Automatic annotation (TrEMBL), chains A, B, C, D:
Residue ranges of every copy of the Aromatic amino acid beta-eliminating lyase/threonine aldolase domain listed in the record: 3-280
Gene3D superfamilies, per database record: Aspartate Aminotransferase, domain 1, Type I PLP-dependent aspartate aminotransferase-like (Major domain)
Highest taxon above the source species: Bacteria
KW Transferase (keyword) present: yes
Protein name per its UniProtKB record: Aminotransferase class V-fold PLP-dependent enzyme
GO biological process annotation, one example: amino acid metabolic process
SUPFAM superfamilies according to UniProt: PLP-dependent transferases (SSF53383)
GO molecular function: lyase activity; transaminase activity
Self-association state and partner proteins as the record states: Homotetramer.
Cofactor: pyridoxal 5'-phosphate
Keyword line: Aminotransferase, Pyridoxal phosphate, Transferase
Length: 349, 349, 349, 349
């Protein structure tokens, strides 16, 4: 019963096989390997973006921070939601990589940035000339940190606002595949066709060992990104093993298969929560993350049985067994029905 | 005939097996996995350093830069050799991670820092009070970038000088194992017993897929390093796969076995070069790197036959077949006698 | 009728005289001048802080940023109000000087930080371990950016909260003297006795040419600050001319005299605004800044007559003469009754 | 007998008068004052550069660091001499403001960069692609830190080399006027006509209180510089007092008059040193700085009589009265013949 994160499960066997296959003979280092050429072509095809600049890094924070540093000046402010991973969970990495850019938090009900509030915040940053921060990129997360999913229209609206102010746009797609499966659209529709300039395309949370693709639809950013990546110590010498993961991930739609599995497991779990008296969602679960509250007593039962997940609000210790504590549950591709049903049985008590 | 670098060869099968073994069930993310506990104990034992703080990162530049940022203040200068990897090959990563520290280059014949020159440079940095950079860490590379190896006494002397000025010390051990095999001493003797405070302990170039250990002998640096690592986007969520590599690397002396293989291959190659008329070493090859010069015509033969290595000085294209060009040759654990002999046959013409 | 800022007026004659007096013969550069020794003693005496480390810089942003960089780590977050000068008016200077620290905005009615909200925000920053920013300094502004003044008790409460979490505290005292005159307390009471660790002690807005003192009550910060100041290019070679200003400013209570003049002028202006039908304060003016709204038609009259001040909300151009636009009015020591009365006459129409 | 630096003497009376004159009524802050408009026009006229972007800052380190940060990327290396002020005397400010650029030291006999060595160093930075630092600006100092002066031809040659590699060029003109007086050329000839892109135009060392002009001949750098200046806390609110200094400095050729006085005083001093037995120049004094050696006994006599200057090599304390110690002597505009002659009398003993 492991629902703490989608980074605690095992690597998909097809990825492991690809690593073994890649482990033959010599390969040029630092991204000059043949497998990287293949990955570049795969991503360009998947995204219908024949000009895109494509790179691999080993962590999502690296993908986000290096992209934002390429899109933002140090005197800019980056617009994001108050619960954005780049704001809450990267220990100031965006500030570090950008050389001190600021993050402006925009009201985001359900973790989705509100367009009117975005426009208002952007306007507010223009009243002080050289004194205030300048308008930098818009960064949105898809799937959001609360498990909701922007529609293509919503992304288009937000990017349209950003573009009307000349601002670049970034999509933190640590759970890109999970969102795509939910929306049933194409990668192009969810990104550049909607106005996104650069994507952190996640692999790690969805069955890979540790690889994220960086995609710039405009290749003008390529050389600066390469320098920033190297200077950030994120250029792996044995790049072929990152490339092997990403290539296998994109082969035969493995990435969509694992995302579908994760989303389906989450749906099963959510359905059970929904039918549990005293349990309620904080956000509508649309991909592979659930935020739900239920009484402390039920948390205690789950905890005692070894269930692993984060309690976001409230504390397990306490006098009132009826007090509602908020849980965050995440399913990865390997979550089993058996585990889910066991969890739900304990939840219902 | 691949002698371009020790990062172009395959991962050792025992490392691959360990990755497969680690790929079972769930594991806590971000270094809280059980395998990481094991690695920590293994390194503490290998280094006879029961208090050491131990971390894993995926690139050597990350290990170096994050350690130096922990040891240096932004207004310091780091003392290193003019051919130090941190100076020449990291695209200003040390400057980036330290927030703008300077690197002071100290004369280093054979790529080994000269103690008198070190003392003189340190003294020179103390004449300007608040105006000049302040004295920061000493950083030495073992095996050096020219294939030479410091003796334990030489390390002790350099660290002694640094310590006499209150300066911390760092050892860039991207090829730590190769040096240890050459010296036949213990890891403790080559490091903390000689005065080293922090080590970049390489795995990647010696048979791993992509893992370097960071070792601080004084655990007071631990928490700051953890924050710097996260902020540098170098904390892997699925840390278990880094830990699995490092653990296998240290098990049954695999790391020494692969280093011995690389050094032995290099010795065979060096012996052949030595016996080749018109060929000469620029530095005495003491581990797994050779710098040697020979006529352009021989380079041309090798190149035409597909041999891969870097020409450091001179250019393959040119009118004079007798002109001496300098080659850098590096052997990894997988270099075969057959390849070496084929190379030597071509060299001799 | 110049009410745009307290940095648009002339330097007080006594400061000019002091500059002339200081301009004789030779003086040691970089703060080693005798006048600097005197300033240090004067500030220590005024603040009843015989151990304090004291420095001079030429801008308020320099004082704030260099102090915050000394008190904060790059992975920290600084707690301040949403309208703090360090957040809105320094073009990311705090982020730059700290190496990428974040600013956490705490709800601040009347621009004064609410203690409960502060506590809640501090608590919220402790749930993510190495992933989130760490707790850094609290920074408060006195006089606030909206013209209100913290009581000594309020400062004590806020600092007490910060201290209970081990956080250092900074007071942006660009208008320190104006606040002190309002409160009628001692400098010590408004700072270290209330729990403040470091002060940006303003001179520029209150009659000086361009000088701010940096005060650390604990001298342990001294050497780091000196290095940061030099590295920030804020160590003036001819420091004697900064010292001369600050010394004259503190002599014979000139600083309190000029602040009293500014506050009295503001009170006269505020009284007139108060008695104007259709005009209303947004915040209670407690020192030398007024935020008030009145109809566009009155703004137009004032503007046509050459009155200078900032319109903070709303725009002079518009169809509705009755629409209320917000003005910010600031008086410096040189504001004349004549000008104020002329302004009020125009306001009343 | 004050020869320690040209920043220890008094401000020229004409500058003081200008400050008094500027101190009337209100003036727009942050560089929007009318006096700044005048300064801009004066500099454009003096430099025959009608398009130039012109700014004022209060320290030479600010001018240098902010210009270099505008011209260099964080992954670049800046080419300068080993004794450059930006390398030795700014406590890593260039590294700080650029976000971690490196400084490559180029052999510079007499403190003047050798063109062949420059070309060789530039070439050496191009062998490592993304791994090494990239080619950034060339920065030269005129008057050099050793008191020598580049000819216009020498500057043209160095800039020509930089330009042939697409590198921008910076002139640290802390002693610009002193050099101009030596060469007898025009400001344009010594700068943009010779290939210089940006100038730190010094006022502080030559009779001002604390002001340096930043000049970009191509105004495309203007807005970025303004943001960097504000973010670096170097935008003075009361800019009029910087502008008043610079304007007076450029009026009626005051700047050339003070430089001529300083150079003439230095020539008188140098002539005396030259005629002193046992004394010898290390570099030919060409402007207002002398490096000369003479026996310890003579230093002792001077020291006992209160003469102030820096001993660069060797120490006053020592057993051997005949040992040669190197002195650095600098004259400012106010150095008197009487003081010089007194100094020379003591020197000769």
């Amino acid at each position: 019963m492991f629902f703490a994160s989608d980074n605690t499960g095992p690597v998909h066997p097809a990825i492991m096989d690809a690593l073994t296959l890649a482990n033959a003979g010599y390969a040029m280092p630092y991204g000059a390997d043949a497998m990287m050429d293949k990955v570049r072509e795969q991503i360009r095809e998947v995204f219908e973006a024949p000009e895109a600049a494509v790179y691999l890094v080993s962590t999502g924070t690296a993908a986000n921070s290096l992209i934002l540093a390429t899109l933002a000046q140090p005197w800019d402010t980056i617009f994001c939601s108050p619960v954005a991973h780049i704001h809450e969970d990267e220990c100031n990495a965006p500030e570090f990589f950008t050389g001190g850019a600021k993050l402006t938090l925009v009201n985001a009900p359900n973790a989705k940035i509100n367009p009117d509030k975005l426009r208002r915040k952007i306007e507010a940053e223009e009243t002080r000339g050289v004194h205030g921060p300048q308008r930098g990129p818009l960064s949105i997360t898809q799937v959001t940190e609360r498990g909701t999913v922007y529609t293509v229209e919503e992304i288009t609206t937000l990017c349209g606002i950003a573009k009307s102010y000349g601002m670049p746009t970034h999509l933190d797609g640590a759970r890109f595949a999970n969102a795509l499966v939910t929306l049933g659209c194409t990668p192009a529709e969810m990104t550049w066709k909607a106005g996104i300039d650069a994507v952190s395309f996640g692999g790690t949370k969805n069955g890979c060992m540790g690889v994220e693709a960086v995609i710039f639809f405009d290749p003008k950013h390529a050389w600066e990104f390469e320098l920033r990546r190297k200077r950030g110590a994120h250029l792996p010498s044995k790049n072929r093993y990152l490339a092997a993961q990403m290539s296998a991930y994109l082969t035969s739609n493995l990435w969509l298969e694992t995302a579908r599995a994760a989303n389906a497991a989450t749906a099963r779990l959510a359905e059970g929560v929904k039918q549990t008296e005293g349990a309620a969602f904080l956000y509508e679960p649309q991909a592979n993350i659930i935020f739900a509250g239920w009484p402390r007593a039920a948390h205690q039962r789950l905890h005692d049985a070894g269930a692993q997940y984060h309690i976001m609000e409230g504390q397990l210790e306490g006098d009132n067994p009826d007090e509602i504590l908020t849980a965050r549950l995440v399913c990865d591709w390997s979550a089993s029905d058996e585990n889910i049903d066991q969890f739900l049985a304990l939840l219902k008590g």
